[in-house]
Amino acid sequence: MIEVAGLSFAYRTASGIVRALDKVSLRIPSRAVTAIMGPSGCGKSTLLAILAGYERGQEGLYLYDGLDVFALNRRELSAFRKRETGMIFQNYNLFDQMTVHENLSLAVRYRHGQGNREFLDHCLKRVHLEDYGPRLAGELSGGERQRVAIARCLAGEVRTVLADEPTGALDPGNREAVLAELKQLAESGRTVIIATHDEKAARRADVIIRMEEGHVGSIEDPEGKTAHPGHDHGLAFPAAGSRAGYR
Ligand code: ADP
Ligand code: MG
Fold it and tell me: What atom of ligand 1 comes closest to residue 42's alpha carbon?
C-alpha cells in the first residue's frame, strides 16, 4: 500500500514558482492497477516521479508499505528505487541500437546483477514476445517496444511499476494489448500505477484517482481496494468500500 498525505511540490522557474502538487492525499493499493487520471498539466508526471523515488516532496508524507520514503538519505533512496520501482514512458526509453536481450540485461545488471538468457526469455514470454530477444529495439513497432519496456520491469523484478502515459503513442489495438499486459502484472502481484489523460485507459483500472490542477478531485474505488485495515488514519482516509477490514 502506498499512502501519501499533504504532499506538495513546486518547481522553481525563471518566471516564478509553479505549484505542481498542492496538498495531495491518496492511497494506492498493492497488487492492483490504479489510474492517475487528469488533463495535461495537472501534476500526474510529477506525482509519478515522486512515487518512483526520483523526486522528493517539499511537504507531506509518503509511506511505501509503511516505509517513510522522504526520510531516506540519498543512498537509501537510490537503493529504494533499484529495489522497488520501475518506470514505463510514453516514448518507451529503450536503447534502440541494442537488442531486446541487451535492453533487458542492462536492467537486470542495474537492479540485481543476475539473470541468464533463459530468465530474459521467460520475461519476454510473459509479454508474448518470446522470439524477440535478438532483434534491435529500434526496429520494433510501438506496441512491441512498450511490451519490451514492461518485460524490462519484469526482468528488474521491481514490485511497483509506474507507467507515464504508456498508451499515449499507440493505436487502439496496441493500447488494448499493453493495458492487458499491465493488468497481468498486477494479477501476478505487482502494484501498477498508470498516469493517463485517456478516459478509456483509466476505465480499465481497479482504482481511478482523478486529479485537477495539482490536487485530487475524486477517487473511484468500486471494490474498496484502498481501504486499509492495518492503519488507523482516522478522518484523512475514510474507508472507501464495504469490504474494509477484510482484505
Ligand atoms: P502532467 O503530467 O499531468 O501533464 P506535470 O506533472 O508534467 O503534469 O506538470 C505539472 C505542472 O508542473 C505543470 O504546470 C507543468 O508546466 C509544471 N512542470 C512540470 N515539469 C516542470 C519542470 N521541470 N520545470 C518547471 N515546471 C514544470
Ligand atoms: Mg505528464
Answer: 3
